[in-house]
Design a protein that fits this description.
Blueprint lengths: L1 H18 L1 H4 L6 E5 L2 E3 L3 E7 L6 E7 L9 E4 L6 E6 L6 E9 L9 E6 L6 H15 L6 E2 L1 H11 L4 E2 L2 H7 L4 E3 L6 H7 L6 E8 L3 H13 L2 H7 L6 E8 L13 E8 L2
Parallel strand pairs: 2-8, 9-13
Antiparallel strand pairs: 1-3, 3-6, 4-5, 4-7, 7-8, 10-11, 12-14, 13-14
Length: about 270
Amino acid sequence: MGIRRWLLALSTIVIFLTLGGFTSSVLAAPQVTICFSSGPAGTIFTAVGTGFTPNSTVTSHLKKPNGIEFPTLQLNTDSAGNYTKDINSSSFALGTYRHWAIDNTTSQWSNTASFKVTTGATTDSVQYMLCRINEIRRQAKLNQLSNNTKLKNAAAWFAKDCPKPNPPSCYSNYNDSGYHRDHLNRCPQARCQAYGYTGTASEIVFISSYSGKAGVDRAINWWMNSSAHRGTILKSNLKVFGGGIGKVSTSACPAISATPWVYVVDFGNQ
């Protein structure tokens, strides 16, 4: 009986520790991401950290392809617990570099994010576009958005379609008279639903003659100088997004053939 009573008491303590105050003290692990997963030497890779102790410091680590670390850096976090750090790869050797950070207040480690210095051109302009948007939201003290595969697929499809001016229904739903209607006459909500997204969707589009990073920078600048598009980017209830960049066929879409690059970001609230 003594052993049974001891085991019962022990199980009660374990349940208390599991369901009681101890779990509430477990903090979510901070996260780091890198804008651009690959690019030639000279690319500016931007590290973005979120979920650290606000108004504090982190120890930033960067490991070379040969396993040797650069000297660690002390970075300040803002009032939301975020930081950004540009990494100039001008003198970097080819290979994969790994970055992580440790919260100096909680001693929590982030995940490890990597980027690769290659001999070719940068290939992930979509990721750069989404990173730019998250950086804008970070500066506005808004939550960071996570990538959503369904929204990504919807945006990627539309970026290679033939965007058309909105009918009145699209305009009333999105407060934006731009090009958000596809050749099937679907507005963003219907298009995202067709790719399996069940939340409320909103969208921003930019059409340009520029491709790559130059095109993304022009898209971001144009969106942020438009009150409707800036308002969409800075919605407080957003949680996820997905991006697409495509070049439309000049024969299939002659109306925008002079500016054939289409930049699309679809946002969602769940």
